[in-house]
Design brief:
This protein is an alpha+beta fold and 437 residues long. It is built from 15 helices and eleven strands.
């Protein structure tokens, strides 16, 4: 069967492959030798200056990378996706829509919505793009959204013979039973930063590649250091000449001392006689500044992901931005999450609804609320009173707090006035008014 035959049978093939997506993720991947990007990812080329191979799997074994990815993905997965309708006066109102269930509860039979969004965001950060296949019924309505590993999707730009016609993307999905193709209208392609029309730039292959490579080498060095009992290498200085027999006897005594159970000291003191002296040959972990280097890599990798270091456990510089942790948390939502959310929202709206009437957007209010006191003051100002006009109703505030509406709670509060709006102006202006003649 050719690629074109698989493309014609895309929908039935997707439905057969979808239940086995879990197996498809972990099984082997076929990569064409002409695919420079995937071949480079497979053989970890180009290498890093540290010599470490930075791949999706090796990067996620670095604790700070795992923490950054899980923080961003978890924050986005916690946001609800309400669906709105634009009214004639360019206002919005929340509506009940069939797609709400796909976006907020279960996009497909094997994924809950939270796991779906964590998977998609992880693919965006680690591979550059998140890909999902849209299963439609005969009426064109989406009935399922199947997330697909980026490594198992090939994207091709189709150039029409007529240069006046727009170019389109074709996606070829690899599953257990082979390949199937899909047009761009049947694929949710969530891009990351640097999208060039086909693929985006992943954080681990661009912004954090060298930092992750150094972190991998640092972990390996620390592991070997402690596997050897955290003991540096030594040389023994003798004032005179030792015979070969004396040297062998001393080596055996030294080895029996420092290679006990588990490779550590066995508790028997080593006695140096005949004027022998011990000299350390290698630097200790403190002299090599191992801990300082590992701490710097945490900050460097967090910078590439846009995650404040305190969110991954690095607490040395928690007050370097704004007034502290609260301001950094708000900055994380505004400057790190918002670009991802905007790209995701636009892809959802143009592929699912195909009309300006309906749209969806992530509700990030919960992450921007701050502490209880700040939230209370915000709601007091938003509801208004006798001095200032409000911009939220009581029921809108109660809805934010997951509380039921109350009677007469849908009116915007306006400030009270001592004079009616139609009161006549004074007949004679004040004498000291500079505008009087």
């Amino acid at each position: 069967m050719t690629i074109l035959d698989l493309f014609r049978a895309s929908a039935p093939m997707a439905e057969r492959i979808a239940p086995t997506i879990g197996n498809a993720i972990v099984q082997g991947e076929t990569v064409q030798s002409s695919d420079r990007i995937k071949m480079g990812e497979m053989f970890a080329w180009p290498g890093t200056p540290s010599g470490a191979a930075v791949t999706t799997e090796s990067a996620m074994r670095v604790s700070v990378v795992y923490a950054c990815v899980s923080r961003i993905a978890g924050a986005i997965a916690c946001m609800p996706l309400p669906i709105f309708e634009r009214t004639s006066d360019f206002d919005r109102k929340p509506v009940h829509h069939d797609y709400w269930w796909l976006l907020n509860e279960q996009p497909t039979a094997t994924f809950a919505a939270a796991s779906f969004w964590e998977f998609i965001v992880g693919q965006v950060l680690l591979r550059g793009d998140g890909i999902s296949y849209l299963v439609r019924n005969r009426a064109g309505v989406v009935t399922s959204v199947i997330p697909w590993p980026r490594s198992r999707v090939t994207i091709e730009l189709m150039v029409p013979d007529d240069p006046r016609q727009p170019q389109r993307l074709q996606y070829f999905f690899q599953g257990i039973e082979g390949y199937f193709g899909a047009d761009q209208d049947d694929v949710l392609h969530f891009p990351g930063f640097g999208f060039d029309g086909i693929r985006s730039m992943s954080v681990i292959q661009w912004g954090a590649r060298n930092g992750i490579g150094i972190a991998i080498r640092g972990d390996e060095f620390a592991g070997k250091f402690f596997a050897q009992g955290a003991q540096p290498q030594f040389a023994i200085k003798a004032p005179g000449t030792m015979t070969l027999k004396q040297q062998e006897e001393f080596r055996e005594a030294w080895v029996s001392k420092y290679t006990g159970m588990g490779g550590g000291p066995n508790g028997i003191p080593l006695m140096l006689t005949e004027g022998l002296d011990v000299k350390e040959l290698t630097m200790s972990a403190v002299d090599a500044q191992l801990l300082e280097s590992r701490r710097w890599q945490v900050v460097d990798i967090c910078r590439a992901f846009g995650v404040p270091p305190f969110m991954v456990g690095e607490m040395d510089k928690t007050s370097s931005w704004g007034s502290g942790v609260e301001q950094m948390s708000i900055g994380f939502v505004q400057y790190t999450l918002s670009p991802h959310l905007k790209r995701f929202e636009q892809e959802l709206n143009r592929k699912l609804f195909r009309t300006p009437t309906y749209f969806t957007e992530f509700n990030s209010k919960g992450l921007l609320r701050g502490d209880v006191a700040a939230q209370t003051n915000y709601y007091k100002a938003s509801v208004g009173g006798t001095q200032n006009a409000g911009w939220m109703t009581v029921n809108e505030i109660r809805r934010d707090q997951n509380l039921p509406p109350v009677k007469d709670g849908d009116e915007i509060i306006r400030p009270t006035r001592s004079e009616p709006d139609n009161a006549p102006p004074p007949e004679n202006p004040p004498a000291d008014d500079p505008n009087t003649n």
